[in-house]
Write a structure and sequence with these properties.
The complex is a heterodimer of chains A (253) and B (127). With 253 residues, chain A is mainly alpha-helical. Chain A is built from twelve helices and no strands. Chain A folds into two domains: 79 residues, no CATH class; 156 residues, no CATH class. In chain A, helix 3 packs antiparallel against helix 9, helix 3 packs across helix 11 and helix 6 runs antiparallel to helix 7. Classes of the chains: A mainly alpha (253), B mainly alpha (127).
Chain lengths: 253, 127
């Protein structure tokens, strides 16, 4: 019987993902309603539970794709992969007010540049404090503090060691998770309740997955604004990392 | 028909990603620069034009809205298939750097929100 069920789930992996994720979301909204009286958004709980399950999946299977490393749950990797994620993010643009975009244009661009600079600076400073004092390692870890894609791209361009490159990926993953979980809690204090601040938030944070999750957990109406700027961030980071950032960090280090 | 909406969405995403890749290539790197953002602007523009000329009926719109409404489950699936183990095993460097950069950037959000904002322009989204 167990064999039958498992091969059935593997054959229908995307359908299985719909069923599993749907149930997870349902449980989360129920918990949100019963335990927090709706104060903590159901989607925030769902994302948090998803991360916990991903950790369990990673520990049990030793793989890199969390829950999706179980063969019967591989469909979750497809449903949550970059292709469908980008497809759904673009669809959210239907609710965008064009005037908002125009009025926030300059602040959005400035927040993007600042976000990249601050991330590299903070990452490089922490790297220095922990004894990674050569400019290549500092820049690579700074790239990781931008996003987990900028880190390895910067690192391989500069010829960093593979241990430093993996560490930069870990830095980016921690950032993405902290943004996802932290955003709903700090949203009120940083004024993250309107399209303008969401655009700026997307540019400063930059991690598409973190921003997508963080805003979904705060107010889904803000998602398209944050996603819009965040999508430029990784490219900008890859552009500036091995060039301007490396140059600046080498001047100081 | 709903599929028209889904097709419009798909074409916008593909076109945006293509432009993003070309942009990256022109800047001399193997990365996508703003493909999703460009796709979003494209979708806004296309649907706006179609709606104006009455060629964007509700059924078509529903094809797009479905994907917009499936967004949160997709993000939950993304969280559930992430490499959380690697993040947790990155040790103190990953933890300190990851948390510090987020805290600093959170604090900068209100600073930038003030740039270029007129006094009377404190718009909030309708609930």
């Amino acid at each position: 019987m167990k064999q039958f069920i498992e091969s059935l789930l593997i054959e229908h992996n995307l359908v299985t993902a719909f069923a599993v994720i749907g149930s997870l979301v349902w449980i989360s909204y129920w918990l949100s309603d019963k335990l927090t009286r709706g104060r903590l958004h159901g989607s925030a709980i769902a994302i948090f539970l998803g991360l916990v399950l991903a950790l369990i999946g990673g520990l049990v299977t030793g793989g890199k794709k969390g829950l999706a490393d179980f063969p019967s749950l591989a469909g979750i990797g497809l449903l949550g992969g970059a292709m469908l994620r980008d497809f759904a993010i673009v669809a959210t643009a239907m609710g965008v007010h064009l005037d908002e975009l125009r009025r926030t244009g300059l602040a959005g661009v400035l927040s993007l540049l600042t976000g990249v600079f601050v991330s590299f600076a903070a990452g490089a400073a922490v790297a220095w404090a922990f004894g990674y004092r050569d400019a290549v390692s500092m820049t690579t870890l700074g790239g990781g503090a931008a996003t987990f894609i900028v880190g390895p791209i910067t690192g391989s361009a500069l010829g960093a060691g593979s241990d430093v490159i993996s560490l930069s990926v870990a830095v980016g993953l921690v950032k993405s998770i902290v943004v996802m979980i932290g955003t709903p809690f700090v949203a009120r204090f940083i004024g993250l309740d309107n399209p303008r601040s969401a655009l700026i938030y997307g540019g400063l944070m930059g991690t598409t997955s973190g921003v997508a999750g963080g805003l979904a957990a705060t107010d889904p109406k803000l998602v398209p604004y944050g996603a819009m700027t965040a999508t430029f961030y990784t490219g900008l980071g890859c552009l500036l990392g091995p060039s301007v950032m490396f140059f600046l960090i080498r001047l100081i280090a | 028909m709903a599929i028209y909406g889904v097709a419009i969405l798909a074409i916008c995403l593909l076109a945006g990603q293509l432009v993003g890749k070309l942009l990256g290539w022109m800047l001399g790197m193997d990365a996508n620069v703003g493909g999703v953002g460009i796709a979003m602007l494209l979708l806004i523009w296309v649907t706006h034009r179609l709606r104006k000329t009455g060629r964007f009926p509700e059924a078509t719109e529903n094809g797009v809205l479905f994907w917009s409404s499936i967004y949160i489950p997709v993000i939950v699936a993304m969280a559930a298939s992430g490499n959380v183990r690697a993040a947790m095993q990155g040790g103190p460097v990953a933890l300190v750097a990851g948390v510090l950069v987020v805290v600093v950037c959170f604090m900068l959000v209100p600073v930038f929100s003030r740039i270029g904002r007129a006094e009377d322009d404190d718009t909030h989204l309708p609930k």
